[in-house]
Specification:
Chain lengths: ~270, ~170
Amino acid sequence: MRQIFNALLKYKNTSLFLGLLFISLLILNQRSFYHKSVFSEIGLGISSNFYGVSKGVSEYLNLRKTNVDLVKENNKLKALELIYFQNQVLKQKTLDTFDFEVLSTKIIKNSFNKANNYLIINKGYEDGVTNDMGVISADGIIGIINQVQAHHSSVISILHQDIKVNVSFKKNGAYGTLSWPGIHPKKMSLDDISTINSISVGDTIVTGGMSAYFPFGIPIGVVSKFVQPKTEGYYQIEVDLFSNLTQKEFAYVIKNKNLDEIKKLTSDVSN
Amino acid sequence: MFQTNTKSFLQFTFLILLQAFLLNNVNLFGFLNPYIYLLFFITYRFDNNPTLLILIGFVMGFLLDLLSQGAGGHMIASLAIAFLRPYIIQFSFGVNSDISTGMLRGTSLSNRLLYLALMVFIHHLILFIVVYFNLKSISVIFKYTFFTTIFSFILLWISLSFFKTRHD
C-alpha cells in the first residue's frame, strides 16, 4: 500500500497530466462535433478490426457447416444449369423451325439510275444461293435474286419496273403491291389499297406475308402522300423508302426453306 | 509568498483577458495570432511547484477555450506545455536549470533563446494538431505552426525585456 502511495507521489505530475489530458479529451469530444466524429471514427476502426478477428475465428470454426451449405447450393445451381441447357436446345429448335435462313453478303455492283436496275452480290450457288431468294439490307429490302453463278449472283433491284412486292400497312394489315415508277430512287408507288381502309401520311409500310421472297414485317418505308379517288376504288399512294439504295454495301440473302413447296402448290393450283 | 501569489494571479488574469479579447483577433496576414499567454508558463519560477503549474495550465487553457469558443486546443496545449516544461528547462539550460529566474537573468542568451523557442514551438505544434486533428492536414499544421511560432517568439521576446527592466 505504502509502495503504491510512494509510486503515486513519485509520478504525481505524470499521473495528474494524464488524468487532466483524459478530461481534456472528454471536454474536446463534448464541445466539438468535428473532434467527436474523428473520435468515433477511430473507435469504429478499432472495434471493426476486433470484430474482424473474432469473425475470422468463428468462420474457421463453422467451415464444416459452410461446406454442407455450399454443396446444397451447388446442387441447386447444377439443376438450374441443366434446365438452362435444355432451353438452349429449345432455342436452337426455334431457329431451325423458322422458315427463312439468312446469309450475309457484300454488294459488288449497284445501279439505280436506269429504268431497270440490277445489283451483283459476292455469293453464288456454292454458298447456297439460288434463284428467287430475297435480298434485304439493314433497313429495308433490296431485291430478288434472278441469276446465280458459282460465287456471284445478280439481283433484280426493287428499283426495277417489273418487280412487284407484296407489302402491307403495319397499323392495320391492309396489303397491296409496291412497285417502282422509275423516277426517283427513294419514291415507290403503292397500289391495290382499297379505300375502305383508312390511311394517313406517315403510316409505316412493311413487307407482307403473301410473298414467298420475304418474311413478314420488314419495315420498308412510310406513306409520304396519297390521293383519294372521288368514287370508291383504290388509293394512289406514294411511299418513301427508309433505305437509301444508292449507298448500299452489305446485304443479307434470305432463303425460304419452303419455297419449293410453295411453288409446287402454286403451279398445282394454276394447273 | 503572498505577494508572489497575488502577482501570479494578476498576471494570470491579465494574460487570459489580453489573449482572449485582443490577441486572438490580430489575424496578421489573415491567419497569424500570437499566443502571448505562454508568458505565464515561461516566467513561472523554475523552483515553484510543477504540479500546481499543471493544474494552472489546465485551468488557463480551459478558460481560454471558453472565452474564444475553441474546442479544446488551448486546454490540451497548455496542459502539455506545463507538464513538459521541466524537461524543456533541463534540456535548454543544462547545469544552470536550478537558477530559479533563469529566463530573466543569470543564464546565457543562447540558452534562453533555445528555451523560449522550444516552449513556443511545442505549444503551437500541439495546439494546431489538436485544432486540425487530421493526418491529411499535416502540411497546414506545420505551416501554421512555423509562422505563428515566429510571430509569437518575437512578441514574447519583446515582452520579456519589459519584465527584465521592471525587475531590475
